[in-house]
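The material for today's practical consists of a large collection of protein records. Read left to right, the backbone structure tokens trace the chain's path through space. An example says more than a description, so a record of this kind follows:
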Amino acid sequence: MNRRDGKRGICGETDLLRVAWAGLHFGEEPPVTGKRGSGTVFFTGCTLGCSFCQNYQISQTGLGGGVSVSELTEMMLGLERQGAENINLVTGTHFVPHIVMALGDAKRKGLAVPVVWNTSGYENGETLKLLEEHIDVYLTDMKCVDSSLSAGLMRARDYPEVSIDAIDTMVGQKRLKIVDGRIEEGVILRHLFLPWAPENTVKFLRLFRKRWYGKALLSLMFQYIPPSHLEGKEELRERVHKNQEERIIRLLDELGIEEGLIHDVEEDNSWEPDFLRNPPFPASLSRTVWHYRGSQRANRIV
């Protein structure tokens, strides 16, 4: 889709750069959060459209405000001044040209912290080549191993093969480097356990052990909670049971996966973001630098 002509891609966006929120986020993986928080920028729109997305307000309903490339540059620099451990760019695939320009400007102006590309994993090689010299860390999902599952959960039956190729490229670009508990370079590979599809996680872990163990840091998440916006699809309302987590932990032992991060089952969804709110996360998990309701300027890419 030629978004320069004002047409909208499957991401729901034109070439107008839009952001929903930027601030210090304290709820990421410990190597990303560090002690001072991750300088996180949430972009509006998404190329994937997962039915269980926790950020659906911005990924699928269009919440966000237009910003210029120079404003994005200043957001990044402002986050660093606030003490951010890194710049964490969330779901920015459809805005790569804007982001690359903003990162170039920010680094010329002194941006020195690592840059994290926080992605669904649905990336192509051309995009990753554009990002290679600008990104230090890939914080990527691997959601589904089976195409029939991905077809039912998102707008991409080809998600498994695309994400596998993308992760291969990511680990080829970045060597894992963690210093004093903080990631400076490399790939963190996230996988969310889906309670109605436990075999998906079994297949993923076997694939991870064979293909990426030692090259990427595993982040295995059991805190799936049905998003508040869900209607229909009764299986998506299931919750993770502790015995399911215990079975997967035993599988990790069987596979010899000894390094990585595990996020335990959670009983409530108090951490679920609401981007109508400022900050969208609980105050204990975030500090706002920019919110779309406070400043809405627009600038299309030229």
